[in-house]
Specification:
This protein is an alpha/beta fold. The protein starts with a strand and ends with a helix. The relative contact order is 0.14. The chain binds adenosine-5'-triphosphate and magnesium ion. Adenosine-5'-triphosphate binds next to strand 2 and helix 1. The site of magnesium ion has 3 residues, from helix 1.
């Protein structure tokens, strides 16, 4: 399922003294099966952009095409569009409301009109994909850690079998362990199902590790797009717009400034570990 965003503009409070241009002529194509990360300074338009993807907002100008079809053209198709594009809001666990995790994950597929057996099957598959086994099924959301709750909420969307999963800051407010669990779950699910993932994140390290492509937003516009390597090589542009490359690349630059010969395009902790290990071996000799 390809998504084409064409000349998308969004004004909040149009025509009032409070008018604010949140999106300004955004053009993007997101291909089937891609893992795309959207990064940008606070207020750059990330949340506004992703809410347009399942027609929660109406463009002031421009369009969103889903497999070539304008999603705002025919209101009768909205329900089906929202099922195909699953949107996980920030702090999705606030919307967990059933007594048990299993019931909560069943809610979406039940609403879609599936029979009981299919609802249960969909819920089990979704919980399995986010790494919550049967021991969690009868637990109340209150018994879970932050990371587990977040994964349960993501499972609730996955159970509706969307073709595209859109997540707004899925690790906000979660401790480092929970963060790794969430990212590993999203990555696992992406590989298992081939689902398209569009993820808004502040963490350069996580984005470098998982995304095929990064979209950098600045003041409602797309400032830069490319592979993590391409994007993080533009350090001065990133710094100009209030962002930074992953910390590991600054470590490499620091070492290079001190005369050590190390690669400069190192963006993940795993890559940096290898480089530092090799360097230590040479220094020891
Ligand atoms: N409901 C709203 N009414 C008016 N202005 C809004 C509304 N929501 C967002 N804005 C404004 O639109 C711009 C883009 O906001 P948006 O929430 O899309 O940014 P963001 O990149 O998601 O930021 P953050 O990283 O803080 O979540 C900001 O200037 C924001 O103040
Ligand atoms: Mg936001």
């Amino acid at each position: 399922m390809s998504i084409e965003i064409s000349h998308l503009t969004h004004l909040y409070n149009e025509g009032t003294a409070m008018e604010r241009k949140a999106l300004d002529d955004v053009n993007l194509t997101i291909n089937d099966g891609e893992f795309v990360a959207i990064i940008g300074h606070t207020g750059s338009g990330k949340s506004t952009l992703i809410q347009h993807l399942n027609a929660l907002m109406k463009p002031t100008g421009g369009k969103i095409l889903l497999d070539g079809e304008d999603i705002n053209k025919d209101k009768t198709k909205l329900k089906s569009i929202r099922q195909k594009i699953g949107l996980v809001f920030q702090y999705p666990e606030h919307q967990l409301f059933e007594m048990t995790i299993f019931k909560d994950v069943c809610y979406g597929p039940k609403n879609m009109g599936l029979n009981d057996a299919d609802v249960e099957k969909a819920a089990k598959e979704a919980l399995d994909l986010v790494g919550l086994d049967e021991s969690f099924y009868d637990k109340s959301p209150f018994e879970l850690s932050g990371g587990q709750k977040r994964r349960a909420a993501i499972a609730g969307i996955l159970a509706m079998k969307p073709r595209v999963l859109v997540l707004d800051e899925p690790t906000a407010g979660v401790d480092p362990r929970g963060r790794n669990e969430i990212f590993d779950a999203i990555n696992h699910m992406h590989h298992e199902t081939g689902i398209t993932v569009i993820l808004v994140s502040h963490s350069m390290e996580d984005v470098a590790k998982y995304a095929d492509r990064i979209i950098v937003m600045n003041q409602g516009r797309v400032a830069l797009t490319g592979t993590p390597r391409e994007v993080f090589s533009r350090v001065s542009l990133l710094e100009e717009i209030g962002l930074a490359a992953p910390q590991t690349s600054y470590v490499m630059k620091g070492l290079s400034d001190k005369g050590y010969s190390v690669a400069q395009d190192i963006y993940t902790v795993d890559e940096a570990t290898e480089v530092l290990y090799d360097l230590l071996k040479q220094v020891k000799k």
